[in-house]
Amino acid sequence: MEYENDYQQYSNSKYECLLFDVDDTLYPYSSGLSLQCTKNITEYMIEKLKIEESKVPEMCVQLYKDYGTTMSGLRAIGYDFDYDDYHSYVHGRLPYEEKLRPDPVLRNLLHSLPIRKVIFSNANDAHVATVLRILGIEDCFERIVTFESLNPTHESNVSDGRENQESNVGSGMDSDAGADPPLPKSPVICKPFENAFEQAFKIADINPKKTLFFDDSLRNLQTAKCMNLHTVLIGSSHRTTGVDYALESIHNIREALPELWEELAKAESPYSGQAAIETTVRA
Ligand SMILES: [Mg+2]
């Protein structure tokens, strides 16, 4: 992309990278896609893992809370299943075309920012690719970090419970979890755990101190803050601990973070004039 050539010119900028979650961040929760995803997860637990139906909703919520994703939690408590099978059941059956639309506003916002952009999602490659394609923003990102990037040695159904020394545990993420007994470990690497962030930084060559991280999950942002990232909560305008900026919608980036464009306007580059005009037109 022509934009990539511009990145180096702004290396003295406050931000060198914009890191984005996908679900409920690049499109709103109100789309209903995540709700459908949760329904598919509960169906998978009932149909494929034969978990008693009455226990599933509460279990689903608890595992998500403890482990970052329900899938990670299911693995931690002893369920063994093929990751691809899980993803195709949970994501592969989503009514993407019905729930999502192209988002030219977001596309223009992303393209007008001369800062490298990276995706960091707990979801699988196929899901992320489909979402980005339907939103019409698949060419806006330099790198895409997904479930497969974070779990490269776990593509098949392999588990002896010891293959990953850096396994995630659910305790310690919530302030009220201190008195709980230790939870079993999961072999799955995912947000909000620090090893997922460390891996993403390595894969995408990210300097967290110069990166702005967008996510709808407060827990993900709180880990991110501990990892020295600058943080933007999406889906709420309430700032809280660990949140530097809070936006109802990703569409509000320009209003909340005008400095991202000001850097561009100030820069002495052949592109600055063009971008300044663009900014004025949209204001
Ligand atoms: Mg999300």
UniProtKB/TrEMBL annotation:
Gene3D superfamilies for this protein: 1.10.150.450, HAD superfamily/HAD-like
Disordered, as annotated region: 152-181
InterPro entries xref list: HAD-like_sf, HAD-SF_hydro_IA, HAD_sf, Pyr-5-nucltdase
Record-annotated membrane-spanning stretches: none
Domain of life, source organism: Eukaryota
PANTHER family (UniProt xref): HALOACID DEHALOGENASE-LIKE HYDROLASE
The name this protein goes by in its record: Suppressor of disruption of TFIIS
Taxonomic source organism: Heracleum sosnowskyi
